[in-house]
Design a protein that fits this description.
Strand content: under 5%
Distance between the termini: 55 Å
Shape: flat
Low-confidence stretches: 117-122
Largest sheet: none
Mean pLDDT: 74
Number of helices: 6
Length: 134
């Protein structure tokens, strides 16, 4: 199964509790899982009126914005409830945020982007674009 489906299921397991704080955090985790579904699997919501709008907007959200959102999802349930199931669900959001952190940082750059200079003053891709053609 997909990782975002596991987040919703993790929130449901947190709901099975006798603590009001854990029940509230379980509801929060289920809602956060639905938000993740809306951002990552927009095709599931195309039958709703908001589906087309959501599909057009979700591609415009930058990786670092999703990273901050997922890191924000992982903190409250783990700190407020503190049960093992809330930690497991929060770790799932943390892993998703870390995946977007890797996408934000990007692939290994050339020598210039790592500070080595690479022998030129501009990155390699720009050097190739600036070569005049005869």
């Amino acid at each position: 199964k997909q990782w975002y489906q596991r987040r919703v299921r993790g929130g449901i397991f947190v709901l099975i509790s006798f603590s009001a704080k854990c029940i509230a955090m379980g509801i929060f985790m289920v809602c956060a899982g639905v938000v993740v579904l809306m951002l990552e699997a927009t095709f599931l919501f195309l039958f709703l009126d908001i589906g087309k709008w959501l599909d057009s907007k979700s591609d415009k959200i930058r990786h670092w914005q999703k990273m901050v959102l997922y890191f924000g999802f992982c903190v409250p349930a783990a700190l407020i409830c503190g049960s093992a199931t809330s930690w497991i669900g929060s770790i799932g959001f943390l892993i998703a945020g870390m995946a977007y952190m890797v996408l934000t940082i990007g692939p290994k750059g050339d020598g210039h982007s790592r500070g080595g200079g690479g022998g030129g003053s501009v990155p390699y891709s720009r050097q190739m674009d600036d070569i005049p053609t005869a």
